Fold:
Amino acid sequence: MRHAIRIAEMNDVDAIARLLHSFNEEFGEPSPPADILADRFKDLLQADTFVVLGGNGPDGLAVVRLRRSIWTSGLESYLAELYVVPNRRGQGLGRALMHAVLNEALARGATTMEIGVDAPDYAARRLYESLGFTNHVDGAIGPVMYVYEREL
Amino acid sequence: MRHAIRIAEMNDVDAIARLLHSFNEEFGEPSPPADILADRFKDLLQADTFVVLGGNGPDGLAVVRLRRSIWTSGLESYLAELYVVPNRRGQGLGRALMHAVLNEALARGATTMEIGVDAPDYAARRLYESLGFTNHVDGAIGPVMYVYEREL
Structure:
């Protein structure tokens, strides 16, 4: 199945905010109001962030952050969010978003991409692994890598 | 034991580069030459990065990246590197660096900190856990969180 996939532009911030708000609602996470999120993305899209939108709704999105690498002259990228609305799942839209994400990150100068994933997110983990991501050091042969975090 | 701890300034880039170069050498990782790293930190320290130095050598450092949060009006922080030279380990220098890191990140507006840690880095994991970090979702009661990565 072909999916309409495009890089978000400044006039897409309301669609981005709506999808992210639905994302939080679905998973019972507290969420800023959609208008606050839209304003924030007006800034982020002009700074270190790009968003890929998929489907005609749009029905899904991926949010990527970029920053300079310490170890190379290029950029490193981080997949901050990936979301597809419930009634569009299982149709390859997440995979189509990820292909676009990888191409766009590369085109913008990134040489690596990282993702934080909760252990029980098997569908996401299978998708990322099928795209060449690994949670093992040294390209799949080493031990696993954890995310540690705390509030400040 | 008290440790000399301070936030790196622009004229510390050579010390930063030397420590990071030793770090890579010790762990058999490829490393850019020290002069390239020093130049890179001239840029990073003016952009999204701060470094904490510890000991008189200095003998250790912590490198922290900051960026705007998607979900709050504050910043999120990421501990990119933590290193203490071999002959100064076991004296609390890593812990002193981490206390300074947490204070400085908070002072700069960060509301969260993340760290990627390889599973067998038990000393580091114990240190982070003793400082309130967790690799479990929802503050230690949920499943673990993995880092996935790939080259682009």
About this structure: The first strand of chain B starts at residue 5 and ends at 7. Chain B has a mean pLDDT of 95. The beta strands of chain B are 5-7, 49-54, 60-68, 75-84, 110-118, 145-151. Chain B has one domain: 5-115.
